[in-house]
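Assemble and predict.
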Amino acid sequence: MTARVVVVGAGYAGVGTINALQAEIEDEAEITWISEHDYHLVLHEVHRVIRDPSIASKITLPISDIKAPETEFVQSHVTEVDVDDRLVHMDGGDQIEYDYLLMAIGSQTAFYGIDGLREHAYELKGVEDARSIHGAVTEAAKEATLSSSAQVVVGGAGLSGIQAAGEIAEFRDEQRAPIDVTLVEGLDEVFPGNDPDLQSRLRSRLEGRDIGIETGEFISEVDDETVYLGGGNDEETETLPYDVLLWTGGITGPAELGDMNVDRDERSDRVVAESDFTTSDERVFALGDTALINQGDTVVPPTAQAAWRAADVAGENLARAIRDEPLDTWAHSDQGTAISVGENAVVHDVPGIPIETFGGLPARLIKKAIAARWIATASSVGRGISAFSDMWFSLTNVACVV
Ligand SMILES: Cc1cc2nc3c(=O)[nH]c(=O)nc-3n(C[C@H](O)[C@H](O)[C@H](O)COP(=O)(O)OP(=O)(O)OC[C@H]3O[C@@H](n4cnc5c(N)ncnc54)[C@H](O)[C@@H]3O)c2cc1C
């Protein structure tokens, strides 16, 4: 009998899985691919759209360029999964049956119950979010004057917050707009939990772009014009007025999986998956930001890099499950970090590169080449090259870092 395999999500995890599965499967399975948009978004470059909305067309790849003719694509929003009846429910009451399901619908922004944050902050999880932030920053700049600058506050100094703040500063400088950008991080340093040398390079890049940095106090409350930092018992509350507030301070499991009967991590609400991407339901696999995968002492980080590399094995494992073969396990190994701060970038700890942390033109080119390499892998080399036409060295020489 032909197995029905359903893959949900068209991010790094979904695209990578589909590519691997399509390469593995002949006529033993029917593949249905569901996602809410008819494009793949290169999410790790979406912050560029804040500065220049025209970049959106370079980082969105049509599904038709990725899927094989035999794969059925359904553009819809999945609302719920019933693992007992093996049914995926979608907007409008449609449903699809599966024998094997792989959930790769990313994550959603975590607001941690901070008063007023969800209501007042922009989030950055897609192209439309980035366009809205562009619009809000542009409007705020129009109303500002040299003596009363627009205040843009970015909460969370992880990958998204740092890179978004960098783009807003670049926009300000290109437009010569009166904007103050402040990056707020509750922990003691930017890019928390990472190498101190990398943190200090990032801090100096950010300060060099005239981005104010506030670390060591968490956002405790937000109203329609002020961000409150710290506070509580004996602490002083610091206030930051804002015109535009962007919140990038954390992720949580997708709400659509709320009623799905598979084990989820209590803290992060992400689906608990093993290193072979199986979950507590034998027919359901999960990976990318949707899944929490514990490997020994570490948890696989929610990065494009990890999702992209894991997806190859996930696609193969779906094929193995269909054939009743033993599943392979995947081990995350960090391939380094490349972070942009506007047009500049910092690259750290890339295997095969003897200098541990560096910036300048090489870092800038590596950052762009990584995106181009992914685009080329996901769809076509031509698309990868045209996406970053200023990139001039061989894609194949660049390690799979993101
Ligand atoms: C601004 C920003 C900068 C980043 N920079 C980096 C970086 O430099 N390096 C790095 O490694 N990582 C970076 N990341 C993190 C990285 O983008 C994520 O870890 C990665 O996108 C996770 O891949 P994924 O496939 O799990 O999810 P996603 O890429 O989020 O894809 C999820 C897919 O599921 C679809 N979907 C969601 N919900 C539904 C639904 N209910 N029904 C149907 N379809 C649905 C979405 O439309 C999308 O196609 C960044 C993230 C952001 C936001």
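The first strand starts at residue 3 and ends at 8.
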